[in-house]
Write a structure and sequence with these properties.
The chain is α/β, with parallel strands linked by helices and about 200 residues long. It is about 30% helix and about 20% strand. It is built from six helices and seven strands; from the N terminus they run βαβαβαβαβββαα. It has a five-stranded parallel sheet. Strands 1-7 form a two-stranded parallel sheet. The longest helix has 22 residues. The radius of gyration is 16 Å and the shape is globular.
Length: about 200
């Protein structure tokens, strides 16, 4: 992935009947990675897709695209190995979904993936602190998990600085996804520079 600010479209908001083509289109428009939302109907009410779809996308898109799996599932431990075998690069699980984050982090690493740790809007960022040195990415949700197309919750911004931006409808439904990706990247980079200057 490129250095600095990275933009990952949430493919859940794409034309699911043409998922492979939609992923290719996003990568061609400058996406740095693909954000794949996995929902099991338990942790969140919706159901999306699982490792067979990930495996199919990996075969179609090749080894280069970075797949960040956002596991909105009640038992994230259950899907580590299947997602690794399917070709996932990063396994992002919800802190709220497990009683043993340390063991899950270890299992993800042992299966050759990077580790992402997500929190819902109602979970304070302090809950991430004990795991900060063991993860590759913290995902601070700015919408409630489980539904695409929600309004961005601006009050989540003070929780953490961002260098990886996930965007669903704004990118996927745009007539010009490249421009939206570039805008998000520029805004993120400017905010990061301002934070550095403010310190």
């Amino acid at each position: 992935m490129a250095s600095g600010c990275r933009i990952g479209p949430s493919i859940l908001n794409s034309d699911l009947a043409a998922l492979g083509a939609e992923c290719s289109r996003m990568l061609d428009c400058g996406a740095d990675y693909l954000h794949l939302d996995v929902m099991d109907g338990h942790f969140v009410p919706n159901i999306t897709f699982g490792h067979p779809v990930v495996e199919s996308l990996r075969k179609q898109l090749g080894q280069e695209p970075f797949f960040d799996m956002h596991m909105m599932v009640a038992r994230p431990e259950q899907w580590v190995k299947p997602m690794a075998v399917a070709g996932a690069n990063q396994y992002t699980f919800h802190l709220e979904a497990t009683d043993n984050p340390g063991a899950l982090i270890k299992d993800i690493r042992e299966n050759g993936m990077k580790v992402g740790l997500a929190i819902k809007p109602g979970t304070t960022v302090e809950h991430l602190a004990p795991w900060a040195n063991q993860i590759d990415m913290a995902l601070v949700m700015t919408v409630e998990p489980g539904f695409g197309g929600q309004k961005f919750m601006e009050d989540m911004m003070p929780k953490a600085g961002a260098n990886m931006i996930v965007s669903g409808s704004a990118v996927m439904k745009s007539a010009d996804p490249r421009s939206v990706i570039n805008l998000l990247r520029n805004v993120c980079s400017e905010a990061a520079q301002k934070r550095c200057l403010d310190r």
